[in-house]
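Entry 14. Ran structure prediction on the chain below.
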Amino acid sequence: MGQKVIFSYVGSMFGGLLFAVAINLIIVPHGLYSGTITGIAQMLESILLEAFGVSLPEGSNITGIIILLLNIPLLVLAVKVTSKNFLFKSIVTIIFTSVAMSVIPIPAVPLIVEPLTACIVGGVLAGFGGGYTLRSGGSGGGTDIIGIYCSAKYPDFTVGKVSIIIGVIVFSYAFFAYDFNTVIYSALFTAFYVVVLDHTHFQNIKTSALIFTANPEAVHSVVHSLGRGATCWEGKGAYTGKHSHIFTTVVSKYEINQLKRIVNGADPHAFIIFNNKVDVSGNFEKRL
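Output, structure tokens:
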């Protein structure tokens, strides 16, 4: 296992640890819920404890264990539509995060007393952790796994629909089991979490690349190594008068550095123009 792979596993688990810290130390002490699979686990824990009258040691919970159990069938679904590297890294991260949530003690008194401040700090910390896990090529499970599976099976599917359904279930439970303030603050935490996660994890940001090279093999290297299509044409330098090969392609932002390495390997003097955050309609493969 190379050093880069080891760092990616460590990064993925580090993101999971930050998420667990945010939930256990900041959010749970206020009795708030996450509008994600974690919120489903919190909800199931409350129902199980109330239904069977089980009491847990002070400062402990079983949310992490429930998250692990919920992710098992989801990972089974994802086996056929994800890479082995992503799958193994996600399994390691999910187990690590579940263990962290089980061992990190929940303070009897909130570390951040003001609920709104707790929502902001907790959302930023959890969002950065979740996003960093995704940037490292792994996943904390839950909605991420559902999104990957459904995106592969149903091209018009959006993860947002699943997120809305899960959020409605969790917040409806919080409303009837507690009060409206719990719903509001839980929704605020979830909103901050999602925004920070999206800004940390920019997998779905698409970038167009316009490449000028003297080596026509550069485009073939990109097509075969990245698996992306490209459109090519011939050009001529206005200053030098030399002929050049021009091609354009669209990649995700995560593929930019790989594209640079491929092109520079074929032609160290190649010139590349990147245009970030382009909208693509049609046959563009989403990857994680």
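The mean pLDDT is 83. Will compare against last week's run tomorrow.
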